[in-house]
Amino acid sequence: MRKYKVLLGVVVSLICLGLALAGIEWSRVGAALQRADWRYLFPAGVALLGYLAARSARWRVLLGPQVSFGEAFSVINIGYLVSNVLPFRLGDPARAVAIGLDGEVRISTALSTVVVERVLDMLTVVLLLAVVAPFVGDAGWTRDAGLLGAGLGLAAMGVMVVLALRPDWARRLVAGVMERMPGLDRERWLTWFDGLLEGLAALRSVDRAAALIGWSLVTWGLTVAYYVAVIWAFTEGPSLVQASFLTSATALGMALPSSPGAMGVFHSVARYALQLPFGVAAETAVVIAFASHAYQYVAMCGLGLVGLLQQNLSFAELRTEARVTAAKE
Prior knowledge:
mainly alpha
């Protein structure tokens, strides 16, 4: 089954890469690169670091004060490294494993916090899309994707809030279901489920929930700032609408299966998110797509390697444990 998933991801990536490069005149690509003002990559890097710092601060709200900001920052970067080089999007289970190795946080608890993060990201991206969509000409599939994401995100958040507010009820329900499953190690799985419930504790606090919302807005605001800087390197006077729509489209597009690092998928979505609604030249849009992805990819892989050193972790060991953890999800 895993082989088929890898094959599907490779096929989707190759198709999307073909779409990203369709009809491109390479001489114009060279001209776009020659016109580029590479100084704007510095503020893009600052925004990218701010994005990672904001994600780390938000994760700490979910994990609790027993995890330092530095540790959360390192492990966040490790997760991106794993997702960029391994299939099956193992970055999330990998960081759950990494943060849980010292025993301060259970792996199941960390996994639960990662799910909360993903739902918050989806809802924030959909909100961003709703704000900018009226100013976008041809939004295409993103409107439908946004509606679907909003529905799924709200449903998932509703379930998590209920579980957070009624943990005893949820545990009794799960225990009752497990009693009807002979041969199951009931205590082991109930312990795992207790860890998942612990990861939802922040949703029971108004202050912590408000902090989660605030950091989510900061996180995606910095993502928009990153794209503003990258677009500015290759065009004159990019707008917040362009950068915001690009942010929403690429975030929603990542739901498609692909090879590690969202190769191909990111590039095709980014190209047409700039070309169709805003009339950016195809070659310039492709350059922006590849430049923004490459910058993120290299920076996050480098920071992930530093994170592995800081956490004294082996990539091979982390990969193995992440696969085991992913199989339990």
